[in-house]
Amino acid sequence: MPTPTPSDQITDSALVQQPSAVVIPDGCNLGVVFRTLIAVNLAVLAAIFLRSDSLMAAVNGFVESAMLIEPACFLSLAILCGLHRYARLLSFFVQRVLCALVPALVTIAVIQLLSGFDWFLNGFSHLSAVGGASLAALVAALFGSALQHYFELRARAFSPVLVEARLQALQARIRPHFLFNSLNAVLSLIRTEPRRAEAALEDLADLIRVLMRDGRAMTTLEKEIRLCRQYLSIEKIRLGERLKVQWERAGISDEVIFRAQIPTLLLQPLIENAVHYGVEPSTEPALIRIQLSHSLERIEIVITNPYNPYSGKGVAALPEGNQMALENIRERLALLYDVEAQLTTTTRLGQFEVRAVFPYVKAALAKPQSSR
Predict the structure, then answer these.
(1) Calpha distance 148→354 (Å, rounded)
(2) How far is CA 150 from CA 25, 39, 106, 180, in A?
(3) For residue 302, pLDDT beyond 90
(4) Does the CA dihedral 35-39-40-45 come out positive or negative?
């Protein structure tokens, strides 16, 4: 097998990201922002209702409090967003302390900033004093710790899903009939086309090696595309002219493809489903279209394959294994990107379409090792 070139050696350790290695919530993630704002505002609203004499007084009190709460929340989330990028350099204890310390310090800073306005002094005179500001900071620290603990537990709750997804991937994607057919196809080439047979075995070995990775591993879009091309070259030996593949790029540069971070085995299983349910049942050439696009700091991948509802292998009759594979990918996207990523499927005009959308995050490059 050929030796990897230095440009290929963006090592797995540099790209792999373990959700459990970071306990600081990602303040840039829309899901984290929404959950934090909802939790904080509901808690403040409940506290104001308990001490108010009427509904109108409670509403007015909440509106006034929002002038302090919202800036403090957004600024705290922005700081945590920056800290999240470097959290792997810190211990778990330091990360948890920062989640409590940042909201406390931000709350004090916002109170000091707003103290120069008359409307704030009239409505929040109790917070302008040292004792009031300290109490507000303590409450903010408790909120920060509670929310950090919630997001940490939420990430841990997904861990069994990842383990199960990996096991199901090994069972569903390293299908015995796929290995059997691939090896038979290679055997048929050994005498007539030995070089092509050797290349096919190398592709098969690379595919199996990647399939054995941790389900939480991250790679680059370029590496995932390369893996998919290797998989398709294996299937091309078996399916021949029936398998037609068309790659399309819209608004996505080579740099984005090389640097875009993507979950390992996100694209390959989707293409495998397209081959298994769109090409294998067909007796005529079938086209699989793979469209890649980049806009508004989001990556979109659309895979389209023929859909024949009368073939017994259409979407309406998809076996449980296929639905499980799609659901596993949805769960992985939810863990890594929360509400910022989606995986949707549609059927129209005789075509089955899978659309995956997720944020564009640049993968960290490994530092070149000095030769001795």
Answers:
(1) 34
(2) 10, 11, 21, 46
(3) yes
(4) positive
What are the CA-CA distances from residue 119 to residues 9, 109, 182, 239 (Å)? 59, 17, 75, 74
Contact 158, 335 (CB under 8 A): yes
At 307, phi and psi to the nearest 5? -130, 120
pLDDT of 80: 92
What phi-psi label fits residue 188: left (phi over 0), alpha (psi between -120 and 50 degrees) or beta? alpha
**Which of 64, 79, 73 shows the shortest CA–CA distance to 35?**
73
Between helices 267-274 and 130-173, what is the axis angle to 10°?
A: 40
**Residue 214, C-beta contacts closer than 8 angstroms, at least 6 positions apart:** 16, 18, 162, 166
Token pair belonging to 150 = 């919630």
CA-to-CA distance for 350 and 307, rounded, in angstroms? 5
List pLDDT tens digits, range 87-144: 888 888 999 999 999 999 998 888 877 776 665 555 555 555 556 678 888 888 999 9
Asked whether residue 14 carries a pLDDT value surpassing 60, the answer given is no
